Amino acid sequence: METKLKMIYWKGEKFWVGKLLEHPEIMTQGETLEELEDNMKDAYALMTLEDVPEKHEIKELAINV
Fold this sequence. Notes:
- By secondary structure, the chain is an alpha+beta fold.
- The protein has a domain at about 5-45.
- The protein has 1 helix and 3 strands, in the order βββα.
- It has a 3-stranded antiparallel β-sheet with strand order 1-2-3, with helices on one face.
- Strand 1 and strand 2 (about 15-20) form a beta hairpin.
- The N and C termini lie far apart (about 35 Å).
């Protein structure tokens, strides 16, 4: 299944930086625009758990902040 999302991006001092408009918590960078796009696809897959196998376990964690 293909999902189309909008990425806002800009050139920082050293890297291209971007985030997804639909998921502003997903942000990454790359040395080139092509690398930024590849990194964004990877970040989206990781953040949306698209690579989690059907057989998986869930554990609740307590985190002090």
